[in-house]
Amino acid sequence: MKTISKVYMTLIFLILYIPIIVLILFSFNNTGNTGSFTGFSLYWYKELFASPDTFNALKNTLILALSASVIATILGTAASVGIGKFKSKAIRNGVLSVTNVPMMNPDIVTGISMMLLFVLVGGLLQADEKLGFWTILIAHITFCLPYVILSVRPRVLGLNRSLSEAAMDLGCTPVSAFFKVELPAIMPGIISGFIMAFTLSLDDFVISYFTTGNDFQTLPLLIYSMTKKEVTPDIYALSSLMIGAVLILLILSNIAEAKGRGKAAETPAEMAERKGFI
């Protein structure tokens, strides 16, 4: 059975990662032939960075992903803390169910429904451009928010309430106790939520396709428009860079999660001493 399990896992990993390896390999091909690898070259990366459309799409993608992830992280952290303050279990579960809807919905349903909402609101406000940067930003915040809550809430549930109470006994206000005691304790979850939100916003296509305007294009939308024509290796180069960026973010997320587990293993006395309360 162990041999069968190992063979099965090997096949799964090969199916998952061979296409990615082939894509990265052909991004270094020295010719435009996408059927055979004829030699190593950085030509297609040079062509990629020489394209003004690519740089404009990259700038739009980074601005959008950073803005959406920061706002979603702030809102998600506040929501995670606020949900824990509800005394009624029914209300708490109801709010959690509502926040999980964008995560459970298919992307195409979320994209179409938000597009209809934005068009309706734009029509009521008599806006010249009903879709643009602000609509796609709101859409990205909406679908990133549940993932931030999913990352932060377990940290909030694992908080030792006696630490914040001890801080207030020593003269801290509830607000300062939150920022000095609770916020550092849940910071690994916040960092993980931020990285997850940034990654999701970075490579989203379906929701972006329905909620953006003609004057704002992200990298996934650019790649889609390029694939309508002849597929050239500069698309492979662009995709390889995005894979590398996502991989780095996942590594950082795992490091933050590991540090969080180390801090969670501290005793209340050790944490209080580290924070300078004793």
Walk me through this protein's architecture.
The chain has 278 residues and is mainly α. It has helices at 2-26, 43-49, 52-85, 89-99, 101-104, 107-124, 133-157, 161-169, 174-202, 206-211, 219-227, 233-264, 268-274. Helix 7 crosses helix 9 (174-202) and helix 9 packs antiparallel against helix 12. The longest helix is centred in the first third of the chain and has 34 residues, at 52-85.
Please outline what is shown here.
With 278 residues, the chain is an all-alpha fold.
Which terms would index this structure?
mainly alpha, 78% helix
Residue windows where pLDDT falls under 50 for at least 5 positions: none
Largest sheet: none
Let me know the average pLDDT.
Answer: 81
Using the alpha-carbon principal axes, give the shape.
Answer: globular
What is the number of strand segments? 0
Report, as a whole number of angstroms, the end-to-end distance: 55 Å
Gyration radius from CA atoms, angstroms: 23 Å
Order of helices and strands: HHHHHHHHHHHHH
Which class do the helix and strand fractions yield? Answer: mainly alpha
- Quaternary state of the chains: single chain
